Amino acid sequence: MSATTAAVLGLGVMGGGIARRLLDRGVALTVWNRSPEPAETLGALGAAVARTPAEAARDADVVLVSLADGAATEQVLLGPDGVLADGPVDGVLASASTISPDLLRVLRERAPALLDLGLLGNGDHARSGELRIYAGGTDTDLARARGILDLLAKQVVHVGGPGDGMRLKLLMNTLMGIQVQAMAEATALGEAAGLPRRTVLDAITTSGFSTPVMGFKARRIAADRYDTPDFRLRLMAKDLALAVSEADRTGLHLPLVASALATHEQAVRHGDGDLDCAAIGRTLTASDGEGGRP
Asked: Which secondary-structure segment (H or E) carries 244?
């Protein structure tokens, strides 16, 4: 039977967009967020506001979890008052967070009906139903959640079994991190050689070498504006670290990913972690001898 009720746990850029989209489409929605303001805003628009993650998930056909990292996901799902604190939920648990395979295995032991979702897009795409969703899990669980997922995405692809949606999202985020850093490096080199930043970025983004994400992030680099992030730099560092860990597990050496991880970790140490990931270019214009700004 297709889902008719949903809960959204985590109301950041992506989760907030998802929640608003579901409300707009008439879904009976319950929301929860660690800080109360985003939930209260959605409550004024018609969502039920839960006091705890467990309360939010109790009666939902689909429980969508959109949190920053594995630690937050583990706390909300397995901690006190967590979704799974008292056992499995009746609905399908759909994790849209990029987390480690080890944590995903723990969740599957506690939640038999579990989908791992790789979401491609940003909060605006979620708000307008234009995401691409790559789902890992069983045919049965995907069928149960399909009515909700189709409201959020222009494409829902069942990529394989448990963990495969998360793995695909991880490699896509890895590719994004490398592309944005490559563009930032090319721009830094051009500026160092005396070329105007705008000229370099225009040449890159109108060429056959560009990708849509490069065109999108180039606007931030051109303006040197990285506040109100679409995707925080520290989250990119987290995903690159997960990719390196997964490569190590499979016996692969990925030199580009390892190099990008080192640069992103350096940027986080220098205080840029909560800026948009396009701010990686600030680390490349180093003047303190080891990257970052003085």
From this structure: helix 233-250
